[in-house]
Amino acid sequence: MNKNFVAFLLIVLVAAVFFLAGKHASTPSGTVAKESTYERVLRTGEIRCAYAPNPPTLIKDPNTGIMSGIFSDVMNEAGQRLGLKIVWAEEVDYGTIAEGFSTDRYDAFCATVWPTAERSRVASFTVPLYYSPVGIFVRSGDHRKQFYGDTPLP
Fold first, then answer.
1. Domain ranges for the chain
2. pLDDT averaged over every residue in the chain
3. What is the DSSP letter of 35?
C-alpha cells in the first residue's frame, strides 16, 4: 500500500477520534464531565470497531473470526502506527450504526458506509478510501419513459 496514502489515512483517523472526543467533552456546570472517546482510547490503548462484513472490502472468517480485506488492513496499519489495538467489537446492521455511537458501544465504524443524515448527527466521516459507482442499466432498445419524481429522464 502506498506509504503516503496510509499516512494520509492515519491523519484522517486521528482527526476523527479528536472530533468524536469533543462530542462528549462539554457538560453543564456542576456536573462531572464524562470521559471523552479520545481519553478512553488513550487510557485503554484500543479502538473499538463496529463492522458490517461486505466482501471483498471486509471479510470475517466464520471459523477463525479473523478479519481481512482493505478496511481490516487499513485499520490494523493505523493501530500499529498509533500504538493502539484494534478491537473488532461488534457486527452491526447498517440501520443501527448511529445507535451504537449514541450509546458508546464502539468508537468507529471500520467498514464501508455511505454518509446519511442520521449518521451525520452522531459521527464524522473520513475521506473515502475509494469510490463505489452506482449505475442504472436498461435493456437496449427499451424506449419507455422513465421518471424521477415528476421529471422525465432523457
1. 3-152
2. 81
3. P
